[in-house]
Amino acid sequence: MVETNKEQKQETNIDLQKVVMNYLKATQRVFDVVNYLLASERLLNEEEYEKYTQRHRVMPSQQDAMNYETAKEEANGWILRQTMNELLFILALFLDDCRAIATIATWNAKKITGDLQKLLQDERAEFFKMDFAQRIQHLKTKYGIASAVEDHILSIYNTYRTLAGKGGVVSEAEAVEEGRLVLKLRSVLLKSTPSAEGPKPGAITVTSEIGDVVKKFAAGDKIKLSKDEHVASILTGAFFIGSMAESLKKYALQLGVLKS
Questions:
Q1: Which of 34, 66, 95, 251 could tie 71 with a disulfide, CB 3.0–4.6 Å?
Q2: Does residue 11 lie within any of the structural domains?
């Protein structure tokens, strides 16, 4: 969270790069933990699962204990739900810092008088009354701060609401895009093409590029992602942080409070 010093002029210099790096560090933590869990799941087989569960002599409700396949599916859903929850929590704090930095930049540029700290606190209270989508819209409307992956992040937000509130099953009310709930992710995509040149004509050349992964779920579908798509949701958050920071920097440059 951005803090200000109550000096007489109340001008505050913000290290935007440091702010961004702190949020990317938090996102990297989610990335690493999720990859650990997903990698562990790949190494666990049914025999090992049964051995471990049989060690527990007491269960809350033994007759309702899941078998291996059911537990695996539920675990993947739980991990996905927690991943998106953690990611959106980080992004909510990041959006609030974007708001605070934009307010400070405007304050310094226009030489506004008054209590800056009180203004920031009052604005923060109003900002957190908004839902996630409204906060993104507020930054765009008031300051022109926006991201190229805004739609992607909003689709993650909508997907998380389904995961958290309805057991991951899409309702008819949520399938609003041509009868589908649409999840858009921005990630690094691998492409393979036959090589017509070089020492081995016909060999496969693998290249990488930034692109989108789109998942569509009809009403009644249960939301499931592959491991790569799961990780892509975190990368989408990182792309959002970077692009929003660039837009915020552009706003400060336009105000003249930041030198290019």
A1: 66
A2: no
d(CA 177, CA 87): 24
Distance CA 211, CA 239 (A): 11
Structure tokens at 182: 């649409």
219, 179 contact by CB (below 8 A): yes
User: Looking at the domain assignment, is residue 6 inside a domain?
Assistant: no
Give the separation between CA 126 and CA 115, rounded to whole angstroms: 17
- Could you give the 3-state DSSP secondary structure of residue 198? coil
Q: Give mean pLDDT in consecutive 10-residue pieces for the chain, a chain of 260 residues.
A: 50 80 97 94 88 84 88 92 97 97 90 85 95 97 96 97 90 93 90 62 69 95 94 96 96 80
Domain of residue 101, residue span = 16-56+65-255
Q: What angle do CA 87, 90, 91 make, to 5 degrees?
A: 85
DSSP secondary structure string for all residues of 142-160: HH----TTHHHHHHHHHHH
Residue 5 within a domain: no
Asked, for residue 188, whether it belongs to a domain, the answer is yes
DSSP letters spanning 86-131: HHHHHHHHHHHHHHHHHHHHHHHHHT--S-HHHHHHHHHHHHTTS-
